[in-house]
Design brief:
Elements (H helix, E strand, L loop, with lengths): L1 H20 L4 H4 L13 E4 L6 E2 L3 H12 L5 E7 L4 E7 L6 E11 L2 E10 L8 H17 L7
Antiparallel strand pairs: 1-6, 2-6, 3-4, 4-5, 5-6
Helix pairs in contact: 3-4
Length: 153
Amino acid sequence: MNTVLLLLIAAVIGLLVYIRLAPTDPDRWHVDPLLAADPGQAGVLIVPPSAPVYACEPATLLTALDRVVSKVPRTREIARDSDAPWVTYEARTKWVGFPDYLSVRAVEVEGGASLAILSRLRFGRSDLGVNAKRAQAIIAALDAELETSDCAQ
């Protein structure tokens, strides 16, 4: 019985170490939100017209988004498209380090620019709404960041 318990504990620890240290393949996760399928329970997809519109150019909006995301704990950029205002970030949970991927593209729309956001988990089938909450928190922080700028909503 003790051997089985020790093997089970070792397996759980091994899985947690793998989740924390598994390498990230930017080519797999850098997905254009405008072309992506809805991830369902594994994440969230927010595209215009559901996303707010800001009175600025897409590149300016993405620069402001970069400032906002740089303040989010345990979040880092993993890929950026040089031809379009489109970037992918990796965000990890505090304790286990579960990775989620947030791809954001700033797009030109009537009245300015908007965001297309795809946020999804790497491991599991359901994120329990974590990615939707993160996306909404980033939008709220972006609104606050731009409140006094020429790029306000």
